[in-house]
Amino acid sequence: MLSNFKVILVETSHPGNIGAVARAMKNMGMDQLRLVNPKFFPHADATARASGADNLLKNAIVYQSLPDALADCQIILGASARDRTISWPSLTARECAEKWLAADYADTNIALVFGRENSGLKNHELDLCHFLLRIPCNQEYSSLNLAAAVQVVCYELFVASNQPQPVSVGDLGTEPLANSEQMESFYQHLLETMADIGFLHPERSKSIMRRLRRVFNRAQLDTKELDILRGIFRFAQNHNQ
Ligand code: SAH
Question: Do 107 and 49 share a structural domain?
Answer without folding.
Answer: yes
